[in-house]
Amino acid sequence: MRLVWFRNDLRCHGHTPLTQALAGGDAVTALHILCPDQWDAHGVAPARRWFVLHSLLELGESLAARGVDLHVLDGGDFDGSVTALEHFVAEQGVTEVFCNREYPLNELNRDRAVARRLEAQGVRIHGFDDGVLVPPRALHTGKGTPYTVFTAYKKRWDVWMDDLQPEAVPAPDWPGGQGRFVGRDRVERALETLSVPDSVTALWHPGEDAARGQLKDFVEQHLGDYKARRDFPAEPGTSGLSAALSAGTLAPLDAYLAARPALQDAKAREGAATWIGELAWRDFYRQIMHRFPSLATGAPFRPETALLQWSDNEEHFQAWCEGRTGYPLVDAAMRQLVQTGWMHNRLRMLTAMFLTKHLFIDWRKGERFFMAHLVDGDFAANNGGWQWSASTGTDAAPYFRVFSPVRQSHRFDPQGRFIARYVPELATADDKTIHEPWKQPLMTPDYPTTIVAHQGVKQRVESAFRAARDAW
Ligand code: FAD
Question: Which residue spans traverse the membrane (predicted)?
Answer without folding.
Answer: none
